[in-house]
Design brief:
170 residues, alpha/beta, 2 domains, 6 helices, five-stranded mixed beta sheet, elongated, Nucleotidyltransferase, domain 5, 18% strand
């Protein structure tokens, strides 16, 4: 079997598509593997360049594969797209990822630490909660407007609605 200096991996939730290529770009293998099979395969494979799109689970896999001796290159999806030669499917994506990862001028994404990912998650969660709070306030304003209780936009005006709904019992 030919030496495989680069493997392009199209990550998914359950099944990963792999594209192994020589330095000249010749196809050595195309494999479809489950998560468990993927890790077993990569542990048995000699160290090489593993290229993946920088997506949801890519940073976890990058850290895992680096720990077992592979050089991982994460590529932003917008830089992989020009290398897709045919219809968009997992096999074509894996091939395009391998092609993009072998380019000397390609820009790669730095692998995030678990701490960096955690901070990003906190910021995204906060944005989600702020958005949901705004939705609830707007829904409340809309429903109360049907009863003639109207106030201005903004969370600072929720207290005005509260005073109308709960008059002092003095």
């Amino acid at each position: 079997m030919k030496e495989v200096p680069i493997i392009g991996v199209d990550l998914a939730k359950q099944v990963f598509q792999l594209h192994g290529a020589t330095a000249e770009g010749d196809v050595v293998f195309r494999k479809k593997l489950s998560r468990k099979q993927f890790l077993t395969f990569m542990q048995a494979h000699p160290g090489c360049i593993v290229a993946m799109e920088a997506c949801a689970t890519a940073h976890h896999w990058a850290r895992t594969l680096s720990a077992i001796g592979h050089e991982v290159r994460l590529i932003a999806p917008k830089f992989v797209k020009p290398y897709v030669k045919s219809q968009k499917n997992d096999m074509a994506d894996a091939e395009a990822i391998a092609e993009a990862g072998s380019r000397p001028t390609m820009r790669f994404v730095e692998v995030k630490t678990p701490e960096q990912q955690g901070l990003g998650m906190i910021f995204r969660l906060r944005d989600l909660l702020v958005g949901q709070r705004t939705q609830v306030i707007n829904a409340l304003r809309g429903h109360l407007a049907e009863f003639g209780l109207v106030t201005e936009k903004g969370r600072e005006n929720v207290d005005k609605l509260r005073t109308v709904l709960e008059p002092d019992e003095g």
